[in-house]
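Sequence in, structure out. Go.
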Amino acid sequence: MNLSTLSIRANSLLKSSDVFQRGNATIKLQETIHLDEIEIVENARCSDIIKAKIFKWISNEEEASGDSSRMQRALVDFFLKNFQFEFRRNNLVVALCESVLITGISCCICNPQEKLLAFSPLDPNIENAIAMSGATVHRVELFSKDGFAASVAMLEEAFKEANQSGVVRGVVFCNPVNPTGKMYSAEEIRSVIQWCIKHSLHIIINDLFMLTARESFLRHSGSLLNSPLVHWIYDLGKDFGVSGVRCGLLYSSNERVLQAVQALLQPFRLSALDQRLVTHICEDQDWIQSTFAPESQRLLAANLVTVRAQLSEIGVEVMGAVGCPFVWADFRKVLGSHTESAETRLRQMMSTCGVDLCSSQQFGGKECGWFRIAIGHPMEILIVAMQRIHQAVEAFVQQREEMSDNDANLLLAAGSESASASSSLDSLMHQLYKQIKTSTWLQENSADKWEEENPDLAFDYRARIDKHN
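Output:
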C-alpha cells in the first residue's frame, strides 16, 4: 500500500488550488516599494481606519468580554441598525469564515455526490468548500451577451438537466458575484428564492460586502429568511477588511439544520480574542455609521472610477458595482483571438510585467479574455498595478502584431514566386516542379515551425479535429 497516495478528493482540491493560486499571487515587488496582494478579495481600502480603531482599543485596554452571548447581541444590533432587519439570536451560527460555513451547510443538506446548482464563472474557493462536503457543483453557465446575469429561466433549464444524472438539493447564490462583480437587486434575489421554495430546494445566499456595497436583500426581503429552505451567509471580516480576523455568520430558520451545523463546526468557533474584537466593532454603531461605512463607500467608489478610467485608455471595459472590491475586466479586444492559449499568454505577459491576475479559465468561465481585478486596496497600489497592466498590454499587442506580420510575409513570398511563373498551365507546372525540386522552403517552413509561430490557429485546428474524431 502506497501511504503517500492521496484521495480523489484531495487530488481534485490540489489541482484547482494550484491553478487558482498561480493567478492569486502578489504583484511582484521592487525593493523600494511595498505592495500588498492585489488579488486578496476583501475590503482593504479602509485598512487604516479599521487599524486605528483596533489599536485604540488595544492601547486603551478597553474591556470587551469574550462572552459569545454579548457578541451575538452586538451582531443582532449591527444588522438591526444598518439593515433594519432583526435577527433571532437562536437562528445564528458564528464560525471562522464563509468557506467553513459553506462546507458545513453543504454537509448538512447534501448526501455525497448530490448536487448544488451554482452560476459560473464561479469562485473556485466556493466549489472547493462544497467539494469538502462530498457534494458536487452543477454549473449554470453565464455569458457576456446577457451581462453575466442569472435568471430563473436558466435555473429551470439547469435543474432539469442536472436531475437527469443525479439528485439536486439546492442552489448557491452569491451577491455580489465573484468574479463578475454583478450586484443583484432585492427583487432579483427574491425571484430566485421563490423559485427554490417552489421546487423544495435549499438556497445558500452568500451575501458579501453588503455594508460597503450599501445594499442587502435583508433590507427589503429579509422575511424570506423565515423559510426553512433559506440559509444566509455573511463574512464580517471581509466586509471590514480585518485581515486575520475571520467572522462568518450563518442565519437560518431551519432548527435541525442549525443544530447539525453547530455540532459539525464546533472546532471552528471564534477564539475569545476574536469574539472580543467583533463585539468591540459591532457595539460602536456611531463609528460604523458615521466613519467606517461612508468612508469605505467613498474610497471604493473613487477606486472604481480610477480603474475604469485607466483601463479605458487601453480599450478595456469593466463590470462591477459601486462598493464591490473587485471588477471583471474585458480584455477580449486585446487578445485578438478569443482562445484559451491567447488568454494564457496575456496572463503570462502580465506576470512578466509584475502583476498576476486571475483569468476566466481559473473561474471555469466559457468566455476567454476576462480577468478579475481586486480594487479594494490603497490608491497607490492600484496606480502601480494599472501601470503594469498597461505595460503588459502594450507588450502583448506588439508580440501579437509581430506574429501576424510574420504570417503575412510568408504569404507574400509564396505569392511572388507564383507570379513569376508562366501564364500557361504547362509552363506553370514546369516552374512549380523546378521550385519544389530546388527550393528549401518546405524544409525551412515545417509544420512544427508553423505551429510554434501560430499557436492560436494550431490550437483551434486541433480542437476541431478532436471534435470531429
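Check: The two ends are 39 Å apart (CA to CA). Confidence is low (pLDDT under 50) at residues 19-39, 415-423.
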